[in-house]
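Exercise 7. Given the components listed, write out the predicted structure of the assembled complex. Treat all entries as one system.
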Amino acid sequence: MQKFRILLAAAAALLVSWVAAQATTLDDVKARGNVICGIAVGAPGFVFPDNNGVYHGFDVDFCHAIGAAVLGDAKKVQTIPLEPRDVFPKLTTGAVDVLTHRLTWTYNRDNGGGIEFAATYFYDGQGFMVPKSLGVTRLADLKGANICVSQGTTTELNIADYFKSHQMPYQIVTFNGPDVAREAYNQGRCDAFSNDRSSLAANRLVLTHPDDHIVLPETISKEPIGPWVRQGDQQWSHIVRWTLFATMAAEELGITQANVDDLRKNPDASPEVKRILGVGDDLGQKMGLSADWAYNVIKQVGNYGEIFDRNIGPNTPIKLQRGQNALWKNGGLIYAPPFR
Amino acid sequence: MKSQALEQGTGGGEARPRARRVPRNGAGALVLQGVVLVVLALFAAFIIRNVVLNVARLNIHMGFAFLSRPAGFEIAQHLVDYSARSTYGAALEVATLNTLAISAASCALATILGFVIGLLRLSKNQLVSTVALAYVEVVRNVPLLLQLFFWYFAVLGTLPLPRQSLGLFGAIYLNRRGLYIPALQPEAGFAAAALALALGIAIWVGCVFLARRHPSDTGGASPLRWVGPASLVVLLVLARLLFGAPLAVDTPQLEGFNFHGGALIIPEFLAMLAGLSIFGAAFVAELVRGGVLAVPRGQTEAALALGLRGWPINTRIVLPQAMRIILPPLITQYISILKNSSLGAAIAYPELMLVSGTVLNQTGQPIDLMAVTMAIYLALCLGIAAIGNAINRRFHLAAP
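Answer.
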């Protein structure tokens, strides 16, 4: 009879949860108290763990920015490293709230169902890295070469398209993650390693002899990279998108981590600065956030330029130039819509 | 209270069976089974409803139409024609063939190696049996993934670059890019040679059957046993003389980065073959040892009494009887090897897990894809089990 009662109780519990309502991601995050971000397994400058296993990097800083915007504390985030193959199922099933990963915005992914692109935070392109001993200076010399890539990314597809249209034969070696692919290239399994140019610059540093390798000058694709969220939750997708734009607008308007407090107290600051920082107008309530959501982002994480310089800028070992990722005023593609 | 219960239990010869709490037969049992069924059905319905609702909410596409869309990616090893323009369905086919190829090769190698090691374990020579024991214990207890990484990275790293390949007879080359072997191209005489081969084998098999059915009067082997091989050789020679060479050999030549011509076996295949075979052999060795030990000692003693010595005792008396015990777990081991081949995804061998992972990422349809992948693995494993069961029936003891 005891077992029977337990069975009946379980059945009743199931029936009750049958009619449970759907909660939005924002509600879940607030109830849980942290934002769960899916990040890449490892890409120096963008995602890397320190000696205590805590992750830092360009992508991780944007995860912190979302935490600061939603919960007021940039530290209230949990980062989960994911291989490219696992990212979308983990997002659609709710294991992570947002993917701040190295994932390109493509037609098929946007319309594939279940996921939505927030906004581009890094404009990149695909390139190739070869050992100097190969004596190759241009991509056209890679006819018949073995190329190491990671599965399931746009890398494979771009190579297939490029080499087919230039009638160059090649041998593909597909690994289930970019770090295994890089290790195999390091061991000499392939003649070339292909990935986004920023990843190539970062990965070159962790090879056994970084100075023995060069990145070829050609870029064979456009790779707009940014966070992905679940489809069907407009509010959350707007929150992520406008958090990104807040960092970009902050750099454009000259708001930095250092002067944000002064600007907030300054009555002569420009109207747009005041609106972003929540002075005299509450833009946050339309997204279900507090009035100082953008202030928290800039104060705790910084503006776009500061995030870039801290992780992958010219003063870091990665030494990336702003290039396409400069502000539109400086000839780049970083352009935030007006906060009005 | 205790003493009362004891009294009741031991008192009297007539034991009244206590009414069971859970009825085993009759109407009560049926009702109980009905309730359990309803609960299970509700649980399944809950899961299915959850999935359907979430799929609709997230706007995920379902359906198998993606199988006819172009794949857009290359696969490193394809046993049939495949290119980036082939469909996703073709990609999954290629991957399934790769899984079958590595599984078949590993099963064969693991069986041979396993039998050898298993018999070595039973050797009277202390050194030999200890070495075999060490092999089995070490290999069995290290995770397979680790062993695969070892074969791929540790061994791969020591192979030379194409310019300094290890060559054999000027036709086989081993380097970091793989194993280059001569490829065989069919020529004019191929059809005739194939026909001659088929005919010759058919005659040989027929002779074997006839020889068994009609032993010669002297009790020795039948003279028919020479007819089979002789006819095969004669037919092949005739085909060659009349129709020309059946095959042309295409040897690999070093040009530029890599070799051209010949056939290439990728290093991922070699690493998987080494890893899976050596891992599987350790388990097969234990199966063989168990099977041989299970044959009663009386059999060996009777063989010795009859005057048999040494190896024929094993091959004619012990092993055939041991096979009955070895075969079912051996089939299980083959199924295990097939499932272990899915670890190839970790070292870039393009088997089903790796390719379906790529397709999943490109199409964004995890449920349909996983259903297809699971169905393929299930079909392959059930196939092996069915063949195994059929062979098993032949080894059954006849009813007395």
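Discussion: Chain A has a mean pLDDT of 89. Chain A touches chain B through 54 residues (CB under 8 Å).
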